[in-house]
Amino acid sequence: MCCVPWGPRRRSSSRESIIPVEKIKKADVEYIICTYDYECLFKRAIDAEYRQYEGCSANLIAVLQQGNTKVKVAGSQTPGYKAGYRTIVMTAPFVNATILLRTKQ
């Protein structure tokens, strides 16, 4: 007995439009913070949505320099991604928050 396919194979065109996550160095993120040319949002673990960050850049740099803070450039499937912007995601367990830095592309 041979195997019969159950239906036509579908080619997914949506895969072509997925933007992958990129790596970024903490030094590059610090440079972005020092240029003051970004929008900053944050969300603590207890928050439902991102809010505008109103603190100073020195505090952002301090959080960035913590050893357990991780940084990446968001891909299109990353929470917080926004089309037309380069979104840097800082996951900061030190302050139990996720911080987004958005710059124009």
Quick take:
Helix content is 17%, strand content 27%.
3D architecture notes:
This protein is an alpha+beta fold. It is built from two helices and five strands. It has helices spanning 26-35, 57-64; strands spanning 39-44, 51-52, 70-73, 85-92, 97-104. The chain has a five-stranded antiparallel sheet, covered by helices on one side. The mean pLDDT is 89.
Task: Please report the distance between the alpha carbons of the first and last residues.
Answer: 56 Å
Count of DSSP-assigned helices:
2
Helical percent range? 10-25%
Average pLDDT, all residues: 89
Structural class: alpha+beta
Radius of gyration: 18 Å
**What string, H for helix and E for strand, traces the elements in order?**
HEEHEEE
User: How is the biggest beta sheet arranged?
Assistant: 5 strands, antiparallel
* Number of DSSP-assigned strands: 5
Instruction: Enumerate the strands of the largest sheet in spatial order, edge to edge or round the barrel.
Output: 2-1-5-4-3
Unreliable residue runs: none
Strand proportion, as a percent range, falls in 25-35%
Query: Which shape, going by the Cα principal axes?
Result: elongated
